[in-house]
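Pasting as-is:
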Amino acid sequence: MEKNIEDMVKYNENAWRLGAVDAGYVLFGMYYTGGGVEKNKGVALRYLLDSARLGFIRSQRQLGVAYRGLTLRDLVDKDEAAAFEWFLLAAEQGDRTSATNVAVFLHEGRGVDKDDDEAFRWFSRTEDMPYGRDTSGFRGLAAFYEKGIGTDIDLVQVYKYYDLLSPGSAPDKARLEEQMTPEQIREAIRLSRQWQEEHNIFVPSYYGLEYQEDGTFQ
């Protein structure tokens, strides 16, 4: 087992020298945790920074999280302006999680001037981004459409995004239904199903199943 780890270290170090930027992210993890090599946080940070500067999305996102002060607190000091810049670089390459963070920072004015119009634009872009969790940004979009932040209030869009977040959003959908007409609800469900079909991603509501109090769908 130890020999396998040593071989893995050598393989990734060689891959890194040959230009494989993802190997830099792997080596960051090894040197940070001491997996197969002597723990060295300075070397770990160098690999993380270098791979991020070369455009590796996971490294950019990890630096954003680190500078935000959520993890790796022993590696970098909290710096929300730096966090925003790293999230922005990853978001510009299509990373949904980073784009969601960019939108939150813009909305809250963390490390950057507050700008709700730009925050809404970034939340909206998460719909068609290729990387990260499929529904990242949808809860933010639902909140912005419901409160009219950076856009007009639109309960059809709110319901659509909550429907895409099923099953956890069942209480939110029930709350909205009290304010909507049957026609609005049908349109929201149509838009939700259209998005699911276009992206080949399906939630229980697509099949006509409804969330039950016991946590099942029937």
